[in-house]
Write a structure and sequence with these properties.
Beta-Lactamase, alpha+beta, 16% strand, single chain
Length: 169
């Protein structure tokens, strides 16, 4: 190769990262449940708990932790709306079911500080809503006798729209 070709090739190699940087995306698109879908999840969750004899509060949040729906059943405790919201926020923040966090905290004492973070409630009952493997929100339930019961209701509520989520674009 002659020196002109080498210089030209060197310039092209140097400019390649610049061209790639110009094509770099700077915006992210996220998916969120419609208000109607969030309400459907909340109502199905509340119904599942009622069938088990529980009066609960249900919170549905989007993937950014923003509240979409909060329902409090007639005889649910006064603190249950806040607890449901915090459980859902915790599931969103850590991208896992809060019951998994409870287990992790009992087996790994180094994680115990997590429960002292502001806006975190490490009790079972917060469950992620997923679409094609991506978290798009969470449901939090509070008021059943156990966190496992809260979580079961949340899971049943999510199942009410899961088929629609599986085929959504």
């Amino acid at each position: 190769m002659n020196s002109k070709c080498l210089i030209l090739l060197s310039l092209l190699i140097l400019l390649l990262p610049v061209a790639q940087a110009e094509d770099e995306e700077i915006l992210v698109t996220t998916k969120t449940l419609t208000p109607e879908a969030a309400l459907k999840v909340a109502l199905a969750t509340q119904s599942a708990c009622r069938k088990s004899g529980y009066q609960v509060s249900v919170a549905v949040l989007d993937g950014g932790g923003n509240i979409q729906v909060v329902l409090r059943d007639r005889f649910a405790g006064i603190t249950t709306p806040d607890s449901a919201i915090l459980k859902a926020k915790t599931a969103v923040s850590f991208r896992t079911a809060t019951s998994s966090m409870v287990e992790a905290l009992t087996t790994d004492p180094e994680l115990s500080g997590i429960k002292y973070l502001p806006g975190v409630l490490v009790l079972a009952g917060g469950v992620m809503i997923q679409q094609s493997g991506a978290m798009i929100g969470a449901v939090g339930v509070a008021g059943a006798p156990t966190g496992k019961s809260d979580e079961k209701c949340a899971t049943l509520g999510i199942e009410s729209i899961q088929e629609l989520l599986d085929f959504a674009e």
